[in-house]
Amino acid sequence: MFKKIFTFFLILGFIITLGVLGYFLYLYNSIRFASEKIIYYNPPLSARFYDRNGNLLAVKYKNQNRFYVKYKDIPGRVIETLIATEDTSFFEHEGINFNAILRALVKDIKAGKKVEGASTITQQLVRNIYLNRKKTIQRKLKEMIISLKVEHFLTKEQILERYLNQIYLGHGYYGIATAAYGYFHKSLKDLTLKEIAMLIALPKGPSLYDPTRNYELNIKRADRIIKRMYILGWISPQEYKQAILARPKVYKKMLEEKAPYAVDTAIMRLLPKYPDLFTKGYDIYLTIDLPTQKLAQETVKWNKQRLLNMNPDLNGTQLNGAMITVRPQTGEVLALVGGADYQKSKFNRAVQSRRSVGSSIKPFIYQIALNIGYNPASLVPDISRTFKIPSDVPDEDKYWKPKNYEKNTLGLITLREALVHSRNLATINLVMSMGLDTVLKEMYTFGFDKLPDNLSIALGSVGESMWKFSELYTIFSNYGTKSKVHIIKKIVIPRENVTITTEPKYEYIEPECQAYLITNILEDVVKKGTGRKAKVKGIQIAGKTGTTNDFRDAWFCGYTPDTETLVWFGNDDSTTLGKSMSGGRVSAPAFAYFYRHLLEIHPELIRKFKIPKGVHYYFINGHKELFTKQSPPPKQETYVPVF
What we know:
Radius of gyration: 36 Å
Structural class: alpha+beta
CATH architecture of the domain at 67-245: Orthogonal Bundle
Strand order of the largest sheet: 2-1-5-15-16
Helix content: 25-40%
Largest sheet: 5 strands, mixed
Low-confidence stretches: 112-116, 637-643
Mean pLDDT: 90
Distance between the termini: 132 Å
Shape: elongated
Strand content: 15-25%
């Protein structure tokens, strides 16, 4: 009988053992890939955008806002505070603290409810990455099995690195480095003990202890953490007292985006090549100079208000402006503004809009003339013409009779005078003299596209984006060499230790001396022509106004010896700005406002244009004029060479 009972229990024990082993085998199989997600940790990381000097401009992410920080860059005080709070024997156990489990169980039984947890940091990491927070025996067993495996494959330091980058700390902040910048606008290394404790207080209840909503609750829990460290002997009495008394400032937002249109422009250019832009932790350094960018944003807002004050009939909702400043020697964008108010309209008028450029196209036409042998003193007829526009319908031909802005004609005038005063009729006659085919061919060589195959090209009936137009203008501002305009300086991938740098790209168009001829004429545009309102004391400026039909678009395209700035204003619905609202009146004052203040921010800016080799002077009609080998003095006038 005894033998039968023994055999029964032996078989029963064997069956139970098999059942337990089978159950654990089932659990192990169900989670066999879970540990790999922790061991080969690769969480989504935010993209951070900086200006050229390392100032943070914006943070972009897909689902989780996370700044990754390596263990070697985590301050020791952060590690101490975490361990003191969550797992004092972290460096002693193998992933599960059985003593803590028994201790917590006894306390729970005595209290009749759950009063103390016993999860190690490793178990919390497993729960955060793989498992949900549903409290079941099966989940707890899975958690323990994965924790043991993780401890087997990873060092304690690697586990801490993963934990501190994975924990959720409220406000969409994942990881302690993210929360440090989000709540305190500080890097992790600059946090005080109290600030560290305030962050370590959050994982237990990110909403409950949110310092932006429940500051006092967060402070009380942080003080308990600090007291715990003091009891353990990990901080001195002086450190304890100083930390307890501290009440750090907390910010509700991580940052206000400082250059939204510029960042959007960079994103548009990056996404096709980097579809994982918002998840791989790229640090993108823009060519933007933050002080210059802020001034450009201020300038657009200032000018919009000036125009509304000047003309009360303008619609403040439709009126808008854009601005771009580049370094012509490299093509780097120093400032880009796509509208007066990003919050009201994210449409980027500096990049996404193609507006008629009006008379600001004329320097290119005059450059063609100079390159084929004309001189600034060459004469062109400023006389009216009527052009017949044939129609397929008999007796319904139309006629085009262009006019000068001033509604007059001056007869024969020099190329210089025609460009300085933006004479429409002289420009049309110049195009006819050179031949429309010649002009179109050379314009395409400069880089224009989609040009009208008629004489309206002389008046700027060309739609172009400000981005592209600024690149074309570097032909003048960079002395005959077109610079590829770009806004991304370098891309850093910290976790891969890779840096991708953008190198300047150039296209040679013409000799320096030929481009300088236009610069010299455009200086006169600012000194005494249509761009007088762009004048700034103490610096040489070359530029050209642009006004389109019915005053729909107002441009000023100008440059100094080492910067180039384009300004545009108009209505988004392309309605008129009002009578006499020309580029010289609307946009040139904004250019002047910008440069007056830019010289205060950057007093090192070069003030005078260099005169390239090959530029010579001669006297004609009592004044000095320029000539080059390619643009010799005109034959119809007597002249005296100077050198």
